[in-house]
Design a protein that fits this description.
Strand order of the largest sheet: 1-2
Number of strands: 2
Distance between the termini: 34 Å
Order of helices and strands: HHEHHHHHHHHHE
Shape: globular
Oligomer: single chain
Helix content: 55-70%
Number of helices: 11
Length: about 270
């Protein structure tokens, strides 16, 4: 489907490529070990915004937040530069309605690169049906943030530059943004092709342990497709789900509440 890109789509591709080129700044700034901390911090904090915010909260409502914490989570999610929380949640809900069917917005059955990044660069995904996210669309602050979705990410970048200078900006913002992008996108592509299947879901979702490490637990993707409402995606003791660990800590602190459990539907289970 990438071969059907319009000239506007190719402008999006050019901007996406420009970010990757800019991230090569890490090769020319003087290296210090502390830059790895900037990279890890910029990656982990914003990946948590993607997993706990965009995905488990706004897309699946797998736990509850107060209105202030909800807005803060939305801002944190959007520092990753993956558009607005309403846009993200609407498309993701559509994905689950049509997972790996012709109407799926990003199935690898339409091509690996389309699922990985092509769909998000295409103008065909620029809009969303607000009825899909009417539950969150009723909040004016979220509609405002969604409209100006491009603001939080550069503000985060400016803050990193102000705190650490050019080298920190290169490692903690530019490179970490690229890595967060591709780790997130790999859930749509890699996790529907390679891995194991504990549950006999109607789609191609897979559990992928190394992807789960990179995405703080999202790689237990077949588990998720079996019970998408759960705040927890790793089930067995060795299926580490860092996002769920942090959410439990937030629950203890009184910030998050009513974390929804994983419910196994035995009639859909397949032994592996």
């Amino acid at each position: 489907m990438i071969d059907k890109f319009t000239w506007r789509d190719w402008l999006s591709v050019a901007r996406f490529v420009a970010l990757h080129v800019a991230a090569l700044t890490v090769l020319v700034v003087p290296f210090q070990a502390t830059l790895l901390a900037w990279l890890a911090g910029g990656y982990l904090v914003r990946m948590f915004g993607v997993t706990a915010g965009y995905h488990r909260y706004f897309s699946h409502r797998s736990y509850k937040l107060g209105r202030g914490a909800q807005f803060a989570m939305a801002v944190l999610a959007q520092t990753s530069g993956q558009k607005g929380v309403l846009w993200w949640a609407a498309h993701h809900r559509d994905h689950h309605r049509h997972a790996d069917e012709p109407a799926d917005v990003h199935s690898p059955r339409e091509g690996f690169w389309w699922a990985h990044v092509g769909w998000v660069l295409s103008t065909r995904s620029a809009h969303y049906d607000p009825r899909r996210v009417a539950d969150f669309g009723r909040f004016p602050e979220l509609r405002w943030l969604d409209r100006y979705h491009w603001v939080p990410s550069p503000v985060f970048g400016v803050a990193v530059y102000a705190a650490g200078g050019l080298a920190a900006f290169a490692w903690g913002y530019l490179l970490s943004t690229v890595l967060v992008y591709h780790a997130t996108f790999a859930i749509n592509s890699v996790a529907h092709i390679w891995g194991t299947r504990r549950f006999d879901t109607a789609d191609d979702s897979r559990n992928n342990w190394w992807l789960a490490i990179l995405t703080l637990g999202e790689g237990w993707h077949n588990n998720h497709h079996h019970c998408m409402s759960s705040a927890r995606q790793g089930l067995r003791w060795w299926e580490f789900d860092a996002t769920h660990v942090v959410l439990r800590a937030l629950a203890v602190a009184g910030i998050a509440r009513d974390l929804r459990p994983f419910i196994v539907q035995e009639n859909r289970r397949r032994a592996v």
